[in-house]
Design a protein that fits this description.
The chain is mainly α. It has 15 helices and no strands.
Length: about 400
């Protein structure tokens, strides 16, 4: 007697998820090499620190708004992948062109171009990733991509230090070598990623597209924005470790330990991205995200109240890596769950823009408070916003079925 074989569940680790994950690794590897040596390269041009701030600020701002525009536009296309490939190519070529710079404004133009490509591709990459798996496996897919992206952030700086020695500090050669992983990333998107052709979407204005996003998603964005305004760049933790350890260990050893602590941070960030993805597929994504936000608040409070030694700083960096892994994976997978697939481009683009603006505000405010009032005030500001963001996510996390159902008519 024949039995019907059970239906096989689609695998979440398919060629598209693997291709996008590896593309993230290679692209991050490419631009992290350039980012690591950029301050030293600018010094050879006789550039002051203000130029570095302007280069980073203009590039991040342009990238944020490119994400929003890209998300809106690509929701209307039958195929998104060609735009993603173009974005990866622009990022690779823009990064390599640093080596052609003879003045700081050349670097500004090259970095802004590279980050424009990065902004254009981000919501498309996330939409392609979400479309390649089932809603039940969003967490693992996004966690896998975040893990490989973070591995690129670990390998990139290490490669930069090695390559500097191999090319005898010849920066144009070093920047040209970033083309290798950068073009590999574009090739992976081209040949590994499979995209289902989408149905044509009727033209809707930008404002109407925003208003069409579900109310729960808009409340989620408010929570992300509140959290983001406190979520400072973790390079400030490197500065904190350097400042606190220098009186005891001296500047050279303090800088070395601070760098090692940041590597520890990134290792836990990569590991917990995948763990967070698995948890997201088995538990309530919103509750887990709120937990990540509260963990960030604990990290900020530890900076304020713990004596800052090598060991307590190691704990702070470790917790920082864990919560970033939770936060980034769960924000993306929760976003994909809250919004219909036809609106994923707009949703991911808006989320990325809110995060980008939050990053700009938070780092500026925390740095300003640190300078004027000390680390206590700076990290207390972050802790308050982390808690507020977590509380609001908890409200969004309540499943719609927990609300009172509408009474039936007739």
């Amino acid at each position: 007697m024949k039995t019907t074989p059970p239906a096989t569940r689609p695998r979440w680790l398919n060629r598209t998820v693997l291709g996008i994950g590896l593309a993230s690794l290679f692209s991050d590897w490419s631009h992290e090499i350039a980012t690591t040596v950029l301050p030293a390269f600018l010094a050879t041009l006789g550039v002051a620190a203000a130029w570095l701030g302007m280069i980073e600020g203009v590039s991040d701002g342009l990238s944020s708004f490119a994400k929003l525009a890209s998300g809106y536009y690509t929701d209307r296309l039958r195929r998104r992948k060609p735009i993603a490939v173009a974005g990866y190519l622009v990022t690779a070529l823009g990064t390599a062109s640093f080596g052609l710079a003879a003045a700081p404004w050349h670097v500004l133009l090259a970095r802004a171009t590279a980050w424009l490509g990065r902004g254009v591709r981000t919501p498309i990459r996330k939409a392609l990733l979400a479309a390649s798996v089932t809603p039940q496996t969003y967490g693992r897919a996004f966690g896998f991509e975040r893990m490989l992206d973070t591995l690129g952030a670990i390998v990139g700086p290490a490669s930069a230090l090695l390559l500097l020695q191999l090319v005898n500090h010849h920066y144009p050669t070093l920047f040209a070598l970033t083309l290798v992983p950068g073009l590999l990333a574009a090739a992976l998107i081209t040949f590994a990623v499979q995209e289902r052709e989408r149905k044509p979407v009727a033209h809707v204005s930008f404002g109407d597209s925003l208003r069409a996003l579900p109310p729960r998603y808009r409340r989620f964005l408010l929570a992300v924005g509140l959290f983001g305004m406190g979520d400072f760049a973790h390079t400030l933790l490197i500065l904190l470790a350097t400042v606190k350890l220098t009186p005891v260990l001296g500047p050279a050893k303090a800088a070395t330990i601070a760098t090692a602590l940041y590597l520890l941070h990134n290792v836990f960030y990569a590991g917990f991205s995948m763990a967070a993805g698995w948890l997201a597929d088995h538990l309530n994504k919103g509750f887990l995200l709120a937990g990540g936000y509260f963990l960030a608040a604990l990290m900020a409070l530890a900076v304020i109240f713990l004596p800052l030694t090598v060991w307590t700083l190691a704990l702070i960096f470790l917790v920082g890596g864990v919560y970033v892994g939770l936060e980034e994976t769960l924000e993306d997978s929760f976003c994909a769950e809250l919004v219909p697939e036809a609106q994923h481009g707009m949703a991911f683009g808006t989320l990325a823009t809110v995060n980008g603006l939050g990053d700009f505000v938070s780092s500026a405010v925390v740095g300003w408070l640190w300078t004027l009032a000390g680390t206590g005030a700076a990290f207390a500001y972050s802790a308050v916003l982390f808690v507020l963001g977590g509380l609001l996510v908890l409200r969004v996390a309540r499943p719609p079925s927990s609300q009172a159902p509408a009474s039936a008519s007739g």
